[in-house]
Design goal:
With about 325 residues, the protein is an alpha/beta fold. The chain is built from 9 helices and 15 strands. The termini are far apart. The structure holds threonylcarbamoyladenylate and magnesium ion.
Length: about 325
């Protein structure tokens, strides 16, 4: 199959060696591929490449960036990416591979693209049980970021046909292994020093998580999915720089650090060619760098409000809004 850009002629291939090899090649070239997991079908891309991760958001048509779950082969690959406490390790040993996602502190020099965690200092990790997703991780040798393989605002797909109905033409390949076993997304638990926070209920109940980890439950902030991810308290936090941020700036004042785009050069240019995939890939690195400068403020060049530009502008607007609530 020739490598081309969107719109794609979306192929549906039965799970097997040939499909995995083709999917691995696409992922290595920076494209997202839909694959079954034991929970729901996921849209998998190389988590170490910002541009590959940007193409996940582009395919889903999400108007905002939220952090994604990164799928790895085993606990030792997970430990290269995140810092595990004893309790986190107990949970991983008991429930991996399987439908449990752990939110843990990100290692400072982890290979994960900042866009995959939406700039957060934590990461959601899972070792999947399904042989298709496991085969892809093995064949690519990469950690794979994978949200549910549905267009923004649609429910999670539990069969290849659901994926095709919502992402036809937007992704190159769907691996079909029939309906998923759980039909429901993984349980998501943040493991902190003080205890567990259930961020999304799922196949593994809080009672067994408490029993296995020996940790207390801090709260049950519930993620109700993509529809209202923005409701207060649902996500632990959204990354935002500490400094004032000014949008649509053609140039910076002397006390501002300028994030450029296209012809507005700036101190850091998101994409000189005006490529929104490249700009999305660079966004969180730019914000972190801007925040660490001595200049008092951050200015950002205008970004077109189309495609991934919508998600970039959404994040910038929220970073620019005065902090009203904790
Ligand atoms: O079963 C599943 O978990 C499926 C399959 C494909 O593995 N994946 C999935 O991913 O549901 P996604 O991206 O749709 O859900 C990711 C959710 C986000 O909505 C967010 O609530 C949470 O994971 N999340 C990710 N990173 C986080 C972080 N650093 N802190 C808090 N929550 C995080
Ligand atoms: Mg989802």
């Amino acid at each position: 199959m020739a490598l081309q850009n969107a719109p794609f002629e979306t192929q549906v291939r039965p799970y097997g060696e040939a499909a995995i090899a083709e999917a691995a090649r696409l992922i290595e070239n920076g494209f997202p591929v839909a694959t079954p997991t034991e929970t729901v079908y996921g849209l998998a891309a190389d988590a170490t490449s910002g541009e590959a991760v940007a193409r996940i958001y582009e395919a889903k048509g999400r108007p905002s960036f939220n952090p994604l779950i990164v799928h790895v082969a085993d606990l030792s690959q997970a430990e290269e990416i995140a810092i595990f406490s004893d309790a986190a390790r107990l949970l991983a040993r008991r429930f991996w591979p399987g439908p449990l996602t752990l939110v843990l502190p990100l290692r400072p020099r982890s290979p994960i693209a900042p866009l995959a965690t939406a700039g957060l200092p934590t990461i959601a990790l899972r070792v999947p049980a399904h042989p298709a997703m496991r085969g892809l991780i093995e064949a690519t040798g990469r950690p794979l970021a994978a949200p549910s393989a549905n267009a923004s605002g649609r429910i999670s797909p539990t069969a290849a046909g659901h994926v095709l109905a919502s992402l036809d033409g937007r992704i190159p390949l769907i691996i079909d292994a029939g309906p998923t076993a759980h039909g429901l997304e993984s349980s998501i638990v943040a493991v902190t020093e003080g205890g567990l926070r259930l961020l999304r209920p799922g196949p593994i109940g809080l009672d067994v998580l408490v029993a296995v980890s020996g940790m207390a439950v801090l709260s049950e902030a519930v993620d109700r999915g993509e529809a209202n991810i923005e409701a207060p308290g649902q996500l632990a936090s959204h990354y935002a720089p500490a400094k004032p941020l000014r949008l649509d700036a053609a140039e910076a004042s002397p006390d501002e650090w300028l994030i450029g785009f296209g012809e507005v050069g700036g101190d850091f240019n998101l994409s000189r060619t005006g490529d929104l995939v490249e700009a999305a890939a660079n966004l969180f690195a730019a914000l972190h760098q801007a925040d660490s400068q001595s200049r008092r403020g951050i200015a950002v060049a205008p970004i077109p409000s189309q495609g991934l530009g919508l998600a970039i502008n959404d994040r910038l607007r929220r970073a620019a809004a005065p902090r009203s609530q904790g």
